[in-house]
Give the backbone structure.
Amino acid sequence: MLKPGDLLRYYYLWARQADTGEESGRKARPVCIVVRTPATPAALFLFPLTSQKPDLSRANIAISEIECRRGGLDFPSWLILDEYNRVQVDEAYDLVTTKPIGSFSPAFVRKIAVLIKEAVAQRRVRGVVRK
């Protein structure tokens, strides 16, 4: 069973790509499952990870070396917090596999969740619903 903090490889579709009509991500990248809600229990909210330092305008969090090791990521890495892909678990065709490549610690996932809630409150988060 997938849970918050699990990292998967997924063909992530950036919001800017969706805006130009693209329907699938260009390459598989690590993503983090951060949110599962009671209102949409079959939906995964996937936040992208990158090894490129994000622009200062992007809401993000740097991943510590220990969390990178836990997650199976290269160091340095960043989690982008101002956009996500939402997919239905049974329709997540762009997942490379449903077997996690790693997982963040519960304490770090709680920290991420707080930052996402702040970004949502500031209306800085954008979702791309995948079909």
Summary: The chain is about 20% helix and 30% strand. The two ends are 21 Å apart (CA to CA). Helices lie at 15-19, 65-71, 106-121.
